[in-house]
Amino acid sequence: MSCLRIDQIYLFLEGELSSAEVSTIKEHLSLCPKCKKAVEERRMLLRASESLPALETPPDFTRQVMRKIFPKKISLHSLLIAEAAGFSAEALMIFAFFLLTRESLLSIVVGVNHVVRSFMLNFSVVSAKLVKLVYIFAEIILLLFKYISKGFFFLTTVLSADVQIVLIFITLILSFLLLYGVRKIILTGEKA
Amino acid sequence: MSSVNEDKELISKTLKGEKKAFEMIIQKYQQPLLNYVWRTMGEREIALEFTQEVFIKAYYSLDSYSPQYKFSTWLFKIASNTIIDYWRKKKIDTFSIDPDKSKENYNMSFQIPDDEFSVAEKFELSELRKSIETALGKIPAALRELFVYRHINGFSYDEIAEIKNLPVGTVKNRIFQAKELIRRHLEGKT
Lengths: 192, 190
Hints:
A: 0% strand, B: mainly alpha
C-alpha cells in the first residue's frame, strides 16, 4: 500500500472507514514512520478540538426564553387590587391634607378659584402669556406622566401582585409619615 | 427512554399546551446549541441572543416539525438558517450553502509533506486548545460552522449533510479543508 492521504487519515481517526480499510491502514502504519507520525499529529489535533471547554449558559437562560415566549399578563384580580390601592392612596392623601392644613378640600378649591378669577380679571394680558406657560408646563407633566406610567407598567410585568401590594402599602405609610412630620415642623414653627 | 423518544414525547406534550415540556426541551438543548452558535459566530452576547431566538422560532414552528427527522437536526437547521441570514445581512461569505459557487479550495494537498509541521512538538494539549480557538476565528465562517458541527457538537457527517442540505462528500471535503486550514494557522503559515 502507498502512503496515506491526509483526508484518509482523518476518516481513519474518526472511525469512518470499513474494517477492511482499517486493517490495511494499520498494517501500513506499522511499516511507515512518516504516515504514523502524520496520524499521531492529527489525532492530537482532533483530541484537542473535541475537548475544547464547553460554554455554559447563564443560570436564568431557560426562564428568559420562557418569558419571551409566554409574556406575563396582568390578571383582572391584580388589576382590581391595583385600582383599590390607588383609591385608598387618594383617600389617605385627602385625609393627610386635612390633617396638615385643617381645611376641607372644598374650601381650598373655592379659595383657589376665587384667587384665579380675580387674577384673570386684573391681569388679563399677563394671563394670556401664562396660559402659554401652563401649556408648556402641562406638556412636560404629560411627558413625565408617560414615563412614570411606562415605568409602572414595567414594574407590574416584573413584580408579582403580592409584591406590588406590599410596595404600595410601604409608599402610603412613608407618605403619611412625611406629611405628619411636615405638619409637626410647621406647628412647632407657629408656636415659636 | 431513548433521547429520540424522549424528544417526541416532549414535543407532543408541548403541542398539547404543556409549558413545562418545552422548558425541558430548552434545558436539554441550550448548551449544545449555545456552543454551536458561540463557536461559529465568536461573540458571546450575539450567541446568547441568537440561541434564544432559535428556541422562540422552534416553539412557534413546532407544529410544522415532522417526526421522521431527528429533533436535534431540525433544531440545528433553524439555528444554521438564523446564522446564515445574519451573515448574508453582514455580507459574510456563505458559499457553503451553494456548492456551485464555491471556487476556493485553499490549495489543499492530500499528500503528507516530507517536512510536516509537528503540532505535538510545538504545543502542550492546553496550549493547543487555546490556539485552535484562535485559529477557528480566522478560517472562513462557512468552514468554521461545519467544523463546529463535526468536532465540537459531535454530529455525524450524514446529520451535518441533512442540516446543511449538502451532499455528504461535500461536507467531508469541507470539514477536511477546515481542519487543514486550522493546522496551517497553528503552523503560522497563514
